[in-house]
Amino acid sequence: MNQSVTARAGAPFTLANGAVLKNRLAKSAMSEQLADGRQDPTARLERLYRVWAENEIGLLISGNIMVDREHLGEVKNVVLDERSDLDAFRRWTDAGRADGTHFWAQLNHPGKQTPKFLTREPVAPSAIALGGGLEQTFNTPRALTDAEILAVIGKFARSALLAREVGFTGVQIHGAHGYLVSQFLSPLHNQRTDRWGGALENRLRFVVETYRAIRALVGADFPVGIKLNSADFQKGGFSEADSMEVVQALAREGVDLIEISGGTYESPAMVGAGLPQPGKASTRQREAYFLAYAEKVRKLVATPLMVTGGFRSSAGVEAALAGGATDLIGLARPLAVAPAMASRLINDPGYRIEMSMPTTGSKLVDQMTFLAITWYEYQLARIGDGKQPLPRMNAWRSVLSTLWGLGMKGLAKRRA
Length: 416
Ligand SMILES: Cc1cc2nc3c(=O)[nH]c(=O)nc-3n(C[C@H](O)[C@H](O)[C@H](O)COP(=O)(O)O)c2cc1C
Fold this sequence. Notes:
The protein is of the alpha/beta class and 416 residues long. The protein has helices at residues 2-10, 43-53, 86-96, 146-165, 180-185, 200-203, 205-218, 240-253, 283-287, 291-300, 314-323, 333-337, 341-347, 363-368, 371-384, 395-412, and strands at residues 13-14, 20-21, 25-27, 59-61, 65-66, 78-79, 102-108, 123-124, 142-143, 170-175, 224-229, 257-261, 305-308, 328-331. The longest helix is centred in the middle third of the chain and has 20 residues, at 146-165. Bound molecules: flavin mononucleotide. Flavin mononucleotide (FMN) binds at residues 28-31, 63-64, 106, 174, 176-177, 227, 261, 270-271, 308-311, 331-334, 373, 376-377.
């Protein structure tokens, strides 16, 4: 078995356009929050991505890059548009492509998932507020007009073309986690009665048209992938059956890679919250959250798949690849505390990283400061500063840093 662990994770993978990923391990998107005040990439981002690229990962997917600077999800998001400093992007992609690593840009629009202090009037398919206590932090959006929807699609395509120009080797549409694309797919969040809402064939029009617009600009040989929810894990929301239909529609369109995740801000299954606790019986089920879904998708489409969420060990990676449900393994949080994890997974069959959800002990504080995300952002910033991450860092240190950052922002009266 030891030999096969190394063989499978380390085996190259060829995409439809002929591009070869040097192995099966991919860094899934993690919003770094390391842009400068003009939302351009910084030296810290270059350092962070160089560290990952030089430690054997096959594919790096950037944290979400916003396509509209009027609609950020977080204060320090990177934006790629005609006002961007393209040389700063080129320096970033040079770093992320070190050692023959593929580096893709994840493109996103937050829709209603943008906090009040950033966006006074968020936009969404329908004027429906986020629930589950998030009303405190997020304003109710207004519904996009037909013309505005077409304009947003144009922005995705423009950013994708720029991504190709500045040296990214592919792009990924962020269609998961409750952001704008996923809001269009959801029957809870999309209650439009025009061609963009209602039946699933209308709800998926936004993502299909976005894909087509990107493809028309970047050409047939530039990889275009999508990150998609297996489900939103909300009653009456985007279901597994819906998701299977979307996967098939995108496969027909020719999408190069489908990454599978799940959840939204209201129900954050992407980081394992609220999912059934792992049983002992199956290594595969125990480790990765969305493998069972991928197994079903595999029977429907031939498009390459990447499953993300929960992978922590060489044995778990081996089992998932051997089972054939996924081609690539997506890794996020572990790479924030163990940036050389890919190398360990490939070379050490006994490797396992133990990780627990960071907590202050107060659910309220954890939620208000988005600790499940911000704790990891703190680690990314450390790597970007040339320091070692702190895998056992006390949660309060992250909370204080988050509050300090918000305070500074408030004082500067910055608005994106
Ligand atoms: C700090 C942080 C930022 C994230 N930002 C993004 C993002 O920008 N886009 C995205 O698709 N997923 C994002 N995610 C989710 C991860 O890509 C991944 O789906 C999730 O963390 C589960 O994988 P893991 O168990 O390997 O961490 C983020 C997760 C973390 C912890």
